Amino acid sequence: MFDIAAAGLPLALAIPLGQIENAHLRLARRVQEMSQAEVDFTGPAGNVNSTGMLLAHIALTDWVYLQCIKGETVSEEPHPVLGPHEDAQGNLPAVSGVPVADLLARLAGVREEIRAYLQTCTEAEAQRAVKVPWWPEEATVRYVLWHMAGHCMNHIGQIDRLKGFYKQG
Fold first, then answer.
1. SS3 of 134, please?
2. Apex CA 108: angle with CA 13 and CA 112, to 5°?
3. What tens digit of pLDDT does each residue of 74-93 get?
4. Are the CB atoms for 37 and 96 separated by under 8 Å?
5. Helix (H), strand (E) at residue 82
6. HEC sequence for 138-165
7. 129 — phi, psi (to 5°)?
8. Which of 21, 96, 103, 164 could pair with 55 in a Cys bridge, judged by C-beta atoms 3.0 to 4.6 Å apart?
9. Cα 80 to Cα 7: distance, rounded to the nearest angstrom
10. Has this prediction a pTM greater than 0.70?
Protein backbone atom coordinates (compact mmCIF):
# COMPACT_ATOMS: atom_id res chain seq x y z
CA MET A 1 0.00 0.00 0.00
CA PHE A 2 1.32 3.45 -0.90
CA ASP A 3 1.54 6.13 1.74
CA ILE A 4 3.31 9.46 1.84
CA ALA A 5 4.67 9.01 5.35
CA ALA A 6 7.60 6.76 6.21
CA ALA A 7 6.94 4.83 9.41
CA GLY A 8 8.87 5.44 12.59
CA LEU A 9 9.79 9.10 12.13
CA PRO A 10 8.42 12.44 13.31
CA LEU A 11 5.75 13.56 10.84
CA ALA A 12 7.74 16.56 9.60
CA LEU A 13 10.44 14.13 8.42
CA ALA A 14 8.26 11.10 7.70
CA ILE A 15 6.39 12.72 4.84
CA PRO A 16 9.40 13.91 2.82
CA LEU A 17 11.26 10.65 3.49
CA GLY A 18 8.14 8.80 2.36
CA GLN A 19 8.30 10.80 -0.88
CA ILE A 20 11.96 9.84 -1.38
CA GLU A 21 11.21 6.18 -0.70
CA ASN A 22 8.24 6.30 -3.07
CA ALA A 23 10.37 7.90 -5.80
CA HIS A 24 13.07 5.27 -5.35
CA LEU A 25 10.46 2.49 -5.52
CA ARG A 26 9.01 3.93 -8.73
CA LEU A 27 12.51 4.23 -10.17
CA ALA A 28 13.37 0.63 -9.29
CA ARG A 29 10.16 -0.64 -10.89
CA ARG A 30 10.96 1.26 -14.09
CA VAL A 31 14.48 -0.06 -14.50
CA GLN A 32 14.64 -3.51 -12.89
CA GLU A 33 13.82 -5.42 -16.08
CA MET A 34 16.05 -3.37 -18.40
CA SER A 35 18.75 -5.17 -20.37
CA GLN A 36 22.35 -4.08 -19.96
CA ALA A 37 22.28 -2.59 -23.46
CA GLU A 38 19.26 -0.49 -22.50
CA VAL A 39 20.86 0.62 -19.20
CA ASP A 40 23.97 1.73 -21.14
CA PHE A 41 22.03 3.39 -24.02
CA THR A 42 22.97 7.07 -24.44
CA GLY A 43 20.18 8.10 -26.79
CA PRO A 44 19.75 7.97 -30.56
CA ALA A 45 22.71 10.29 -31.14
CA GLY A 46 24.78 8.82 -28.30
CA ASN A 47 25.00 12.15 -26.53
CA VAL A 48 22.74 11.97 -23.46
CA ASN A 49 23.13 10.51 -20.00
CA SER A 50 22.35 6.79 -19.90
CA THR A 51 20.07 5.18 -17.35
CA GLY A 52 23.16 3.79 -15.64
CA MET A 53 24.68 7.26 -15.42
CA LEU A 54 21.44 8.68 -14.02
CA LEU A 55 21.09 5.93 -11.40
CA ALA A 56 24.67 6.50 -10.26
CA HIS A 57 24.06 10.26 -10.20
CA ILE A 58 20.90 9.96 -8.09
CA ALA A 59 22.65 7.75 -5.52
CA LEU A 60 25.66 10.06 -5.26
CA THR A 61 23.56 13.23 -5.15
CA ASP A 62 21.29 11.82 -2.43
CA TRP A 63 24.38 10.89 -0.42
CA VAL A 64 25.81 14.40 -0.85
CA TYR A 65 22.52 15.95 0.28
CA LEU A 66 22.61 13.68 3.33
CA GLN A 67 26.09 14.97 4.17
CA CYS A 68 24.72 18.53 3.91
CA ILE A 69 21.79 17.63 6.20
CA LYS A 70 24.26 16.18 8.72
CA GLY A 71 26.29 19.38 8.55
CA GLU A 72 29.34 17.59 7.18
CA THR A 73 31.75 19.01 4.63
CA VAL A 74 31.07 17.84 1.09
CA SER A 75 34.31 16.46 -0.31
CA GLU A 76 35.43 17.02 -3.88
CA GLU A 77 37.09 13.60 -3.78
CA PRO A 78 35.29 10.68 -5.44
CA HIS A 79 33.16 8.58 -3.11
CA PRO A 80 34.80 5.13 -2.76
CA VAL A 81 31.67 3.29 -3.95
CA LEU A 82 29.46 5.91 -5.58
CA GLY A 83 32.23 7.50 -7.63
CA PRO A 84 33.05 11.06 -8.66
CA HIS A 85 30.57 13.91 -9.11
CA GLU A 86 31.69 14.64 -12.67
CA ASP A 87 34.27 13.72 -15.27
CA ALA A 88 37.11 15.94 -16.53
CA GLN A 89 34.70 17.75 -18.88
CA GLY A 90 32.21 18.53 -16.10
CA ASN A 91 29.68 15.92 -17.25
CA LEU A 92 28.21 12.97 -15.40
CA PRO A 93 30.82 10.21 -15.32
CA ALA A 94 30.36 7.40 -17.81
CA VAL A 95 28.75 4.28 -16.40
CA SER A 96 28.82 1.26 -18.67
CA GLY A 97 28.48 -2.44 -18.01
CA VAL A 98 27.30 -1.99 -14.41
CA PRO A 99 24.26 -4.21 -13.79
CA VAL A 100 21.08 -2.38 -12.89
CA ALA A 101 20.82 -4.51 -9.73
CA ASP A 102 24.18 -3.13 -8.55
CA LEU A 103 23.11 0.45 -9.27
CA LEU A 104 19.82 -0.07 -7.42
CA ALA A 105 21.71 -1.61 -4.49
CA ARG A 106 23.85 1.53 -4.25
CA LEU A 107 20.71 3.66 -4.21
CA ALA A 108 19.10 1.42 -1.57
CA GLY A 109 22.21 1.71 0.60
CA VAL A 110 22.07 5.51 0.46
CA ARG A 111 18.34 5.43 1.21
CA GLU A 112 19.02 3.32 4.30
CA GLU A 113 21.69 5.80 5.42
CA ILE A 114 19.14 8.61 5.04
CA ARG A 115 16.52 6.70 7.02
CA ALA A 116 19.00 5.74 9.75
CA TYR A 117 20.10 9.35 10.20
CA LEU A 118 16.56 10.71 10.19
CA GLN A 119 15.58 8.22 12.89
CA THR A 120 17.95 10.09 15.19
CA CYS A 121 16.26 13.43 14.47
CA THR A 122 13.44 15.19 16.28
CA GLU A 123 10.42 16.97 14.84
CA ALA A 124 12.10 20.33 15.46
CA GLU A 125 15.16 19.33 13.44
CA ALA A 126 13.04 19.29 10.29
CA GLN A 127 13.22 23.09 10.43
CA ARG A 128 16.98 23.27 11.02
CA ALA A 129 18.90 25.31 8.42
CA VAL A 130 21.03 23.37 5.95
CA LYS A 131 23.68 24.82 3.67
CA VAL A 132 23.96 23.15 0.29
CA PRO A 133 27.15 24.55 -1.30
CA TRP A 134 25.69 25.15 -4.76
CA TRP A 135 22.39 26.69 -3.54
CA PRO A 136 22.18 30.47 -3.16
CA GLU A 137 20.66 30.30 0.33
CA GLU A 138 20.06 27.91 3.17
CA ALA A 139 17.05 25.59 3.29
CA THR A 140 15.42 23.49 5.98
CA VAL A 141 16.12 19.79 6.37
CA ARG A 142 12.53 19.19 5.29
CA TYR A 143 13.04 21.24 2.10
CA VAL A 144 16.23 19.37 1.19
CA LEU A 145 14.40 16.06 1.60
CA TRP A 146 11.52 17.25 -0.61
CA HIS A 147 14.07 18.43 -3.16
CA MET A 148 15.70 14.98 -3.16
CA ALA A 149 12.38 13.33 -3.99
CA GLY A 150 11.74 15.80 -6.81
CA HIS A 151 15.25 15.34 -8.17
CA CYS A 152 14.69 11.60 -8.41
CA MET A 153 11.31 12.05 -10.11
CA ASN A 154 12.88 14.40 -12.66
CA HIS A 155 15.40 11.72 -13.62
CA ILE A 156 12.66 9.09 -13.80
CA GLY A 157 11.18 11.22 -16.57
CA GLN A 158 14.52 11.24 -18.38
CA ILE A 159 14.80 7.47 -18.03
CA ASP A 160 11.27 7.02 -19.40
CA ARG A 161 12.24 9.12 -22.41
CA LEU A 162 15.40 7.04 -22.93
CA LYS A 163 13.35 3.85 -22.74
CA GLY A 164 11.04 5.18 -25.45
CA PHE A 165 13.99 6.05 -27.72
CA TYR A 166 15.56 2.66 -27.08
CA LYS A 167 12.38 0.83 -28.08
CA GLN A 168 12.17 2.85 -31.29
CA GLY A 169 15.48 1.29 -32.17
1. coil
2. 40
3. 888 889 899 999 999 999 99
4. no
5. none
6. CEEHHHHHHHHHHHHHHHHHHHHHHHHH
7. -75, 135
8. 103
9. 30
10. yes
